[in-house]
Amino acid sequence: MKKINGLLNFLAIVSITFIMTVVLSDSANSAGKYKHPESQEWGFNGLFGKFDKSSIRRGLQVYLEVCSSCHGLDQVAYRNLKDIGLNIEEIKEIAEQFEVMDGPDNEGEMFAREARPSDKFVAPFANEKAARVSNNGAMPPDLSLITKSRHGGADYIYALLTGYKDEAPDGVEMGEGMNFNPYFVGQQIAMSQPLYEDSVEYPDGTKATVSQMSWDLVNFLHWTAEPEMEQRRSLGWKVVLFLLVLTGLLYAVKRQVWSKEH
Amino acid sequence: MSANKSNKSSTGRGLVNWIDSRLPVFSYMQKEYGEYPAPKNFNYWWNFGAILTFMLVLMIFTGIFLSMQYTPHVDFAFDSVERIMRDVNYGWLLRYLHANGATFFFIAVYIHIFRGLYYGSYKNPRELLWIFGVLILVLMMATAFMGYVLPWGQMSFWGATVITNLFSAIPLVGDSIVTWLWGGFAVENPTLNRFFSLHFLLPFVILGVVVLHVITLHVSGSNNPLGIDPKGPQDTLPFHPYYTAKDSFGLALWVTIFAAFVFFAPNFFGEPENYIKADPLQTPAQIVPEWYFLPYFAILRSIDFDIWFIDAKLGGVIAMFGSIILLFLVPWLDRSKVRSARFRPIYKWFFWILLLDCLLLGFVGGHPPSDHVFKGIEWLLFIDLGHIGTAWYFFHFLILLPLLGTVEKTKPLPTSITESVLNGDTSSSASAKSGGSM
């Protein structure tokens, strides 16, 4: 009986892989067919843009309650949440919900313990194979750098999250287990619509519409992608202004030095 | 201690004098960067020597500090770069300076090269100076390519795979060479290791060739916008303070623009896909090199036909490497005795066409060859533009340059730099102004 189960599992994995290959090669063929994301008025846009900390904290909640069941956040540590305004107690409270393997201890045994603020966000799956087998063969990408690693950046992620359609338009042949989303390359995405009205309940009373949650989540993910952004811009202004003054002074020096020659 | 009293002092101070009489670094600096007689009519296009020196030093310094935190292993490289971005103090600044530094290094070097092409800076007696310059370009390209592999993102990995695979086009030994380059049978950890090692080594080789480049420059003396030799001291100015002042201003302006990108658009020249960890099982939809390689990439892909016994792949590789090797021969391909394009009415036009052609090739290199250039125009594909651009590139160097040397009627040269400046030569003052506004 066990052997037959194993065989069935094997066949299932092979056929899923086969379907995925067909779907992927199809999507590669129709790679040109997707909608470009509309640009949004993000708080972090422009030369003076800042992070919207309260939105980022709501986005953290959306990530923890919805996304984190499939998507990792490998590059971010719980301690980093201090930067978006959480205090150490709140950070510990979040970290403690997760378990990490540690060790070996003095007996040489590995042991599980609660995560600490110094740990990186605990990944939902032990490895890529585990992630794929739980997700119909698809690999949910790590989200740490998602807004930086996609063309269209934050606008694209927002459009993708809010762009799901219940049914594919006529003439679009959907792969098995795939979902229609006009913004995704090839318009077929393995991830089913993740956010629905009131998927989370915000403690600050903000109404959890799909667009609100998507907005907050993208703000959060943009912070995880470029946590240095505010520091970079504020230092940037000082450096550029200093250089402009220096350039002006050096131009005056040059004029002075050359005055006899012109 | 008593010895230095008897020494005749040119610089005066005791310790400086003591060292200088044993190792004449100070008198060397005084001679080569203080008194060095530079033509008095340089325009702002002559700033790029100083700018390039600055960029090389910046790249070496940021690179050394980055290497202290980077781990050249396929399992850790990507994460170690992200650790630099997040946990190393000002690591993000180091990395963005280094990554954008490569871009600005190449912008500067391309301007410098086209400056040389316009004003004929490669001609007798500056052939060797030019050859060292092209050698620096080749070394820079190798260094930049290997540096781009180090973050071990998707484009790093697939770029490395595509480019190293080019060598498999070499008949008979191609596959063995590729295996040798990789240190295995795929782009893997040994490949990353050796690329890191070479990426660390080559900048110092570049530094050495830069020294040769500058020595040859100081033997032959600098070219100038008129392309005629200085007739005497009245045509030149001491490098310091005249050109140290002018270079400082130009450099400060350059660094300001550079800083604006580093701080406000650090990923403008980057490919988003390189923020995805390398995955040998997942080919990106489109593999594109960094922008500064796009023209060569376009030439590589434009040879999509067999030429006699040379198949398309080998043909593309030959054309791509040939497009660079051709630059070594420019001093002998250009038969004209007149250096500056100001006095070459026909060459001047073809210079600008060549510049546009290189920009066109860069544009082509960034798009899949089978894509339509314009929506709705069925008959124009990027590969067609690639064919035209590639053909023109080789036509320019191999046919036009030698031909122009014999058929072009050049304008009369001014008798001296001073005369041209005093007579208010309109062309030189006009271009000096336009140079000043950049």
Write the layout of secondary structure elements.
The complex is a heterodimer of chains A (262) and B (438).
Chain A: H1 2-29, H2 53-65, H3 88-96, E1 99-102, E2 111-114, H4 128-134, H5 153-162, E3 179-180, E4 188-189, H6 210-225, H7 229-258
Antiparallel strand pairs in A: 1-2, 3-4
Chain B: H1 3-6, H2 14-22, H3 25-35, E1 37-39, H4 48-67, H5 77-86, H6 91-119, H7 127-149, H8 154-165, H9 174-182, H10 189-220, E2 236-238, H11 239-264, H12 294-302, H13 312-333, H14 345-365, H15 382-407, H16 417-422, H17 426-436
Antiparallel strand pairs in B: 1-2
Helix pairs in contact in B: 3-11, 4-6, 4-10, 4-11, 5-6, 6-7, 6-11, 7-8, 7-10, 7-13, 12-13, 12-14, 12-15, 13-15, 14-15
Short descriptors:
heterodimer, A: 262 residues, mainly alpha, Cytochrome Bc1 Complex, Chain D, domain 2, 3 domains, two-stranded antiparallel ribbon, 4 strands, globular, B: 438 residues, 64% helix, disordered N terminus
Beta strands of chain B, count: 2
The CATH topology annotation of the largest domain in chain A reads as: Cytochrome Bc1 Complex, Chain D, domain 2
Mean pLDDT of chain A: 89
Spatial order of strands in the largest sheet of chain A = 1-2
Helix content of chain B: 55-70%
Q: Which series of helices and strands of chain A comes N to C?
A: HHHEEHHEEHH
Name the CATH architecture of the largest domain in chain B.
Up-down Bundle
> What is the CATH homologous superfamily assignment of the largest domain in chain A?
Cytochrome c-like domain
Strand order of the largest sheet of chain B: 1-2
Query: Main beta sheet of chain A: strand number and arrangement?
Result: 2 strands, antiparallel
Q: What proportion of the residues of chain A is helical, as a percent range?
A: 40-55%
Based on the coordinates given, report the CATH architecture of the largest domain in chain A.
Orthogonal Bundle
Biggest sheet record of chain B: 2 strands, antiparallel
Regarding CATH, which class of the largest domain in chain B?
A: Mainly Alpha
CATH homologous superfamily of the largest domain in chain B - what is it? Answer: Cytochrome Bc1 Complex, Chain C
Multimerization status = heterodimer
How many individual domains of chain A?
A: 3
**Average pLDDT over all residues of chain B:** 92
